[in-house]
Amino acid sequence: MAILTNSRSAAHRADGEWHRNTQSGRINDVVKLTLRERETAQEAVRRFRKLVERSGIKKEMRVREFYEKPSETKRRARLRAQRRSRRERMLTSR
Asked: Which family does it belong to (predicted)?
């Protein structure tokens, strides 16, 4: 049995797979989970949830839930960079 869902980030694990389209460099948006021998449904669901979490699907869904103007995206990125640099300065000044 295999479970498929959409994904945006690329990676590869032994217990699940993410596929990358080599021509365009884009991800084929598939997370694949194959049941292991003697694996219960609960264990498979737990593994599937971890795969989805690691692939970044949930994070992207949250980001894309509502339209964000490009200026707002840039503003959020700028503020995030400011916080990061402030944190780094605090750590290096100690």
From this structure: Belongs to the bacterial ribosomal protein bS21 family.
Residues 10, 69: Cα–Cα separation, whole Å:
26
In the structure encoding, which two tokens stand for residue 36, read together?
A: 């292991």
- Give dist(CA 46, CA 39) in Å, integer: 11
- pLDDT value of residue 10: 43
Given a contact cutoff of 8 angstroms between Cβ atoms, the answer to whether 9 and 27 are in contact is yes
Identify the three-state secondary structure at position 4.
strand
Residue pLDDT, tens place only, 55-76:
888 888 888 899 999 999 999 9
SS3 of residue 7 by DSSP? coil
Q: Provide the CB-side half-sphere exposure for 43 (13 A, CA).
A: 8
Q: Name the token pair of 10.
A: 């690329």
Closest CA to 7 of 27, 24, 21, 25: 27
Token pair of 44 as six digits: 């498979």
